[in-house]
């Protein structure tokens, strides 16, 4: 899609009914109001109906104004621009708007400066959230080819999505994304250069979450430490040349927004909480309680919109009808550009779309701890305010041109359907102003400053050499540094290692030194001598980054670094000392508890006192929890497996399950952390241990050879497999010795090691639901606001269940496009709604059925291995007994050989 301004204006009559288009008219002057019934604003204002059960004396309702009111009418982008109240010198200008985009919720830029827009086109299209999970959302990509500052050239990169959670540019013509109620992140690539993704590959699993669309994973973000973080997930993932690995982290407490500052500190944006979260220390070190981190008055917004249309109702409404307490927030950015005033660099910004404001946050650092305040609290103001009730800032980003872009969803309803149900205060206020009619819009704004024009330097990183990318690590705009680092690492071009070391050692630009350090780490060529040198650098910031980067070397076996952590725990700078004890604790160096206790006695800075004491509390809690985390049998398997792994397996697979590097930076054996092979079907690991594995794995050669361990008994094998499936950030089912005995018997005739392709050909694989699957059921309940009765939810976190309590012969059926050799079923029924007893049958025609398994339901995870003759195109699960509860399934997995 390429619309010049002239073509856009000429075509606007077909896009916007009632528009009066002329060649002189800017596309940003086309008002959404013109597409609405012109009689709407003139009609008698509807009377407001008070819900019958409303308690008019409660804090939520008391004092509410229900006077019939004129509807809120949307205006053009150029008209909306007049509604902004900005600080002196600033200007907001539209760069992309409806009808080209609709319901924009987030933006990201790729290495060539192209802007990807996450368009949530199914979000709250009516007050009841009907169709919220229809596959109508999309990810579009936009460019400003004529360099006039407006993004006029676009293409739909990915279409027909179910409320996508994020977009992550991932190299040339490639993005990562995930849909709602799913557990899988996919990589989408445009292989033929037409601007549309035509290749889909599984990238990572285990990041999904169920619940309403506001409460699911979002904003997967590649940060300076070369890991990717998202909201809600207490884990981080990382791309490596050997696959995606993962590690546990603290809880981000974020909902919609992840960003980082110039030193790699992440900030997560809470939603309903209305405030930033997890900004004290890197999330990998866990969560810390810091009393008073939000200074007095931080939660009070200064809004110019006075409609009292807030979910909490009158209890959080000022006398003038504006909001008195932040109740929602979305999108965030630590500004790192170079084309706005310097005092904005390093400042945190986020949107409060309920208050219609963008807030600038002042960070005060004291003794290693951070305290936040509204930059304009003293003047009872905000960085950006608007008088337009439809201004809904939901994301912001430092742009390649050095300015800040702000995503404005520009709509009537911003809250999800759970909060607009019949009888709710919010529904009454929305209908009072007819705001549920205002949908299908959206604008992206550029914030500029007088006398500081945007940069016209065009990013072309995908077309540049790796050596040219290294130079961008010194760019004054943090976006350029981030993208250069990421793209060098994706290329894995180690030829620039010398230039990077030179930059680390001699650049006068501290931020360039830090990026060069992490680029070396991401290439796998960081050495311990360089790290130790940087640990003695005059700059505390460099010492901190050296400590953080050294953790990778420690995980790969450089245990001598423990002494460096002990030494820097006494650093005169409290932030360096905090980093040292956090690194030591994360890596569990010997006698780390003694180090923490010593720090408490000798370092009286508030930050060290807080961190050391809370880490000691955490250690005590972890020991207590370890005793109850698993059953007695599982604890025995885990403990035995750990002993075996530490004694034998760690030599090749690394003490932290990340693999052991050779002298050339390659790995002796593959990593276990986050491995889809290890967390997939357990038969893979069991057969590997019993018979060994040689040759390339997914095209990757390793120095080591996995020999057969069949001389060990079934308990030995089961314990090792159980341990590696539940350590290193992994979470999988435990393996019983009886299962190992069964596999041993079935493969007793084997006399040689497996090669990878042969082994994978035998292992049951989870079949991922496709559009051409037909899923049906005898009974399906409605699952939540805005949902449809769709039995295919059984494959997602959302789940499926019967409409009534289970009866004999209730069935759930899947029809595939071709026959499969079914091997196993796995599903989660929760604590109560499991099938009492059930059978599984298969068929090739849907008429003649063969029973291939039967089971008794249990709480939580249900697994059933099917008979060898389980081949067919249809698979049916059927209950055989009556129960008091409905039958439910979520995260259903069908395995086939």
UniProtKB/TrEMBL annotation:
User: Which residues constitute the signal peptide according to the record?
Assistant: 1-19
This chain belongs to which protein, by name? Discoidin domain-containing protein
Which PANTHER family does this chain map to? LARGE, MULTIFUNCTIONAL SECRETED PROTEIN, LARGE, MULTIFUNCTIONAL SECRETED PROTEIN-RELATED
Q: Which UniProt keywords apply?
A: Heme, Iron, Metal-binding, Signal
* Residue ranges of every copy of the Cytochrome c domain listed in the record: 636-728
Q: Which InterPro entries has this protein been placed in?
A: 6-blade_b-propeller_TolB-like, ARM-like, ARM-type_fold, Cyt_c-like_dom, Cyt_c-like_dom_sf, DUF7133, FA58C, Galactose-bd-like_sf
PROSITE patterns found in the cross-reference section: CYTC, FA58C_3, PROKAR_LIPOPROTEIN
State the organism named in the record: Algoriphagus aestuariicola
Q: Name one Pfam family in it.
A: Cytochrom_C
The F5/8 type C domain is annotated at 755-897
């Amino acid at each position: 899609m390429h619309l010049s301004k002239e073509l856009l204006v000429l075509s606007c009559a077909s896009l916007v009914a009632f528009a009066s288009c002329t060649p002189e008219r800017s596309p940003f002057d086309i008002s959404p109001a013109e597409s609405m019934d012109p009689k709407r604003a003139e009609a008698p204002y509807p009377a407001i109906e008070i819900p019958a059960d409303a308690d008019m004396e409660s804090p939520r309702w008391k004092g509410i104004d229900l006077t019939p009111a004129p509807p809120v009418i949307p205006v053009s982008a150029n008209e909306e621009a007049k509604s902004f109240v900005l600080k002196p010198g600033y200007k907001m200008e539209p760069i992309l708007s409806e009808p080209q985009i609709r319901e924009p919720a987030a933006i990201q830029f790729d290495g060539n400066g192209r802007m990807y827009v996450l368009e949530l086109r199914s979000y709250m299209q009516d007050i009841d959230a009907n169709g919220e999970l229809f596959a109508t959302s999309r990810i579009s990509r936009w460019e400003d080819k004529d360099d006039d500052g407006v993004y006029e050239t676009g293409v739909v990169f990915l279409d027909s999505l179910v409320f996508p959670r994020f977009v992550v540019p991932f190299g040339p013509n490639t993005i990562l994304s995930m849909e709602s109620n799913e557990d899988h992140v996919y990589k989408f690539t445009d292989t033929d250069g037409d601007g549309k993704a035509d290749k889909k590959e599984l990238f990572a699993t285990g990041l999904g979450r169920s619940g309403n669309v506001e409460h699911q994973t979002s904003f997967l973000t590649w940060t300076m430490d070369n890991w990717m973080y998202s909201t809600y997930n207490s884990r981080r993932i990382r791309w490596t040349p050997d696959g995606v690995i993962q590690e546990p982290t603290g809880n981000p407490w974020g909902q919609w927004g992840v960003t980082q500052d110039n030193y790699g500190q992440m900030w997560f944006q809470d939603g309903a909480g209305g405030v930033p979260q997890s900004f004290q220390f890197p999330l990998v070190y866990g969560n810390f309680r810091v009393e008073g981190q939000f200074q007095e008055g931080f939660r009070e917004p200064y809004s110019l919109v006075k409609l009292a249309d807030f979910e909490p109702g009158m209890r959080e409404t000022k006398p003038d009808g504006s909001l008195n307490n932040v109740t929602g927030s979305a999108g965030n950015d630590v500004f790192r550009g170079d084309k706005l005033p310097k005092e904005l660099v390093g400042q945190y910004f986020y949107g409060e779309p309920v208050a219609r404001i963008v807030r600038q946050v002042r960070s005060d650092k004291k003794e290693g701890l951070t305290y936040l305040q509204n930059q304009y609290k003293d003047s009872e103001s905000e960085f950006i305010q608007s008088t337009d009730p439809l201004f809904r800032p939901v994301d912001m980003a430092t742009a390649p041109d050095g300015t800040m872009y702000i995503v404005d969803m520009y709509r009537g309803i911003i809250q999800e359907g759970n909060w607009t149900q019949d009888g709710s205060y919010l529904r009454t206020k929305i209908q009072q102003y007819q705001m549920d009619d205002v949908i299908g819009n959206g604008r992206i704004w550029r914030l500029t400053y007088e006398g500081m024009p945007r940069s016209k330097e065009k990013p072309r990183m995908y077309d540049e050499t790796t050596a040219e990318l290294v130079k961008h690590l010194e760019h004054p705009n943090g976006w350029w540094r981030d993208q250069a680092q990421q793209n060098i690492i994706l290329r894995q071009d180690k030829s620039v290692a010398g230039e990077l070391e030179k930059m680390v050692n001699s650049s006068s630009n501290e931020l360039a030194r830090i990026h060069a350090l992490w680029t070396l780490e991401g290439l796998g060529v960081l050495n311990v001598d360089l790290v130790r040198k940087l640990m003695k650098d005059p700059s505390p910031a460099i010492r901190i980054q050296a400590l953080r980067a050294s953790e990778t070397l420690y995980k790969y076996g450089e245990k001598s670094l423990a002494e460096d952590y002990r030494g820097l725990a006494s650093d005169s700078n409290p932030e360096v000392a905090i980093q040292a004890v956090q690194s030591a604790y994360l890596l569990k160096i010997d006698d780390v508890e003694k180090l923490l206790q010593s720090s408490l006695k000798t370092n009286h800075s508030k930050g060290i006192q807080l961190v050391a004491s809370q880490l000691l509390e955490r250690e005590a809690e972890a020991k207590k929890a370890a005793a109850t985390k698993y059953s007695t049998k599982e604890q025995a398997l885990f403990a035995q497996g750990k002993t075996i792994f530490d004694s034998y397996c760690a030599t090749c697979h690394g003490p932290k399950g990340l693999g052991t590097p050779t002298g050339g930076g390659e790995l002796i054996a593959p990593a276990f952390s986050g491995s889809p092979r290890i967390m997939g079907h357990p038969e893979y690991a069991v057969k590997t241990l019993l018979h060994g594995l040689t040759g390339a794995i997914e095209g990757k050669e390793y120095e080591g050879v996995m020999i057969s361990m069949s001389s060990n008994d079934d308990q030995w094998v089961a314990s090792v497999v159980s341990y590696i499936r539940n350590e290193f950030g992994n979470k999988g089912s435990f393996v019983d010795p009886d299962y190992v005995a069964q596999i041993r018997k079935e493969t007793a005739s084997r006399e040689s090691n497996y090669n990878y392709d042969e082994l994978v050909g035998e292992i049951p694989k989870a079949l991922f639901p496709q559009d051409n699957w037909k899923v049906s059921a005898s009974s399906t309940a409605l699952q939540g606001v805005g949902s449809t009765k769709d039995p295919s939810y059984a494959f997602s976190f959302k789940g499926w269940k019967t409409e009534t309590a289970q009866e004999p012969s209730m069935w759930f059926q899947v029809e595939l496009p071709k026959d499969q050799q079914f091997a196993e079923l796995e599903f989660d029924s929760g604590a109560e709604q499991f099938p009492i007893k059930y059978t599984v049958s298969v068929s090739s025609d849907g008429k003649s059925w063969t029973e291939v398994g039967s089971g008794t339901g249990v709480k939580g995870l249900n697994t059933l291995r099917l008979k060898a003759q389980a081949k067919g195109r249809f698979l049916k699960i059927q209950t055989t007994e009556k129960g008091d509860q409905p039958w439910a399934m979520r995260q259903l997995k069908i395995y086939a050989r």
